[in-house]
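Weekly sync, protein design subgroup
Attendees: M.S., D.O., the rotation student, P.L. (late)

Item 1: inverse folding check
M.S. brought a backbone from last month's batch and wanted to see whether the design step gives back something sensible before we order anything. D.O. pointed out we never logged the input encoding, so this time it goes straight into the notes. Structure tokens as presented (237 positions):
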């Protein structure tokens, strides 16, 4: 299985389970890629455990023991032997991941729509001892555009309300992604970095889009309902 196929498989499950568990799909996919080595670790192959979940006597699964690397708070590495959950199928392993996140210490992840925040929280909640864990997850999301799965789960149509500089992170991600799609190939247009920052470059892209549609420019920064409808339809000039 290629990395692209792996992302697609985990992503489909993450989007499917989002309405039930409200865990950001990009976080789920990034963790699966990182923890399982793209599905190639022994734990992933032998136990359908793609997230590195350790076993406890009350978790309701069998287990297999592996040596695993950990880090002290100062970054010093060490190795331990630990029991890890073993699942019959990949589907069971993914469902087990979401059940694991139902533990009280992870409740702050539910409903988060900013992948940067989710990646910080899961490290702070104690998922991993790797002191670079948050940055590794964020890099994975940004490198492979995993935020696209967040858009599928949370904004399958479009964000509600106008999109401004003060809108939530994922709303601005949606705006930037749609602008890039609809302005692709336009003379002098440099594709936006999809970073959730509604700054001067994103504003310039909005104004260019309005110009191509023959709309009067505005002094404000608001992308309202008509702009969103045009972007959804993929309208250009």
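Designed sequence read out in the meeting:
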């Amino acid at each position: 299985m290629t990395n692209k196929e792996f992302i697609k498989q985990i992503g489909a499950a993450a989007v499917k389970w989002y309405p039930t568990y409200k865990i950001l799909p990009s976080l789920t996919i990034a963790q699966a890629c990182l923890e399982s080595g793209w599905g190639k670790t022994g734990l992933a192959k032998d136990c359908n455990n793609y997230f590195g979940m350790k076993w406890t006597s009350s978790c309701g699964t069998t287990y297999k023991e592996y040596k695993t690397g950990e880090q002290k708070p100062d970054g010093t590495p060490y190795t331990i032997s630990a029991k890890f959950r073993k699942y019959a199928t990949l589907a069971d392993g993914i469902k087990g991941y979401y059940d694991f996140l139902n533990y009280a210490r992870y409740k702050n992840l539910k409903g988060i729509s900013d992948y940067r925040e989710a990646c910080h929280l899961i490290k702070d909640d104690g998922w991993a001892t790797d002191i670079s864990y948050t940055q590794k997850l964020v890099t994975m999301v940004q490198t492979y555009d995993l935020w696209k799965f967040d858009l599928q789960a949370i904004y399958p149509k479009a964000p509600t309300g106008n999109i401004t500089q003060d809108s939530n992170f994922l709303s601005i991600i949606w705006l930037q992604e749609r602008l890039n799609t609809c302005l692709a190939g336009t003379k002098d247009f440099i594709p936006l970095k999809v970073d959730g920052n509604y700054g001067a470059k994103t504003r310039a892209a909005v104004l260019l889009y309005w110009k191509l549609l023959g709309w009067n420019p505005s002094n404000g920064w608001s992308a309202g309902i008509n702009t969103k409808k045009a972007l959804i339809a993929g309208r250009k000039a």
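Discussion: The chain has two domains: 3-154, 169-233. Strands lie at 62-71, 77-86.
Action: P.L. to compare against the previous round before Friday.
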